[in-house]
Amino acid sequence: MFERFQAFFQKLTANNPKKGFSPDDPRIAVAALCMQVMEADGKIKDSEKKRLRKLLKEQYGLDGKPLEAVIAAGQEAESSAVDYYRFTSDLKRHLDTEQRLELIGILWDIVYADGERSEMEDHVIWRIADLLGVSSRERIQKRQEAAARVTDTVVVQDDAD
């Protein structure tokens, strides 16, 4: 799973070295969309925060102050946004079709980080996917893949006990 994240973020940041974060930096848009998904059910759980931090750290190669900066910039952008279009329009310019699908998969992984999926989280991802041009079939497929990864992880952890 993390190899998929790594490939996605390496492609995403190829033209954006770690020199700082401009307002249209796709890393900020990804972080902001992740925040919106995390907040959709009315509560941000530690497991979701941890998943986001790990994802940003491993895939962007960020740690310490730069990691905190991208998270803060994502939170600020998310809190000032009136809709998803601001982020999805930036990402549509930076991502090809396959990368957009991967992003939807990442958002589903954030949803399942706490082991639960709410109707509001479904709605948020549906809107984001629609704005990114990801079909309902592809969105549902990514949801099913994320749910299967959670199930596989639980089974592996249970077997280890």
From TrEMBL:
A Pfam family annotated for this UniProt entry: TerB
Gene3D superfamilies for the chain: TerB-like (1.10.3680.10)
Keyword Lipid metabolism: no
Entry keyword set: Stress response
Transmembrane segments: none
Database matches in SUPFAM superfamilies: TerB-like
Sequence ranges assigned to domain Co-chaperone DjlA N-terminal in this UniProt record: 27-144
Annotated protein name in UniProt: Heat shock protein DnaJ-like protein
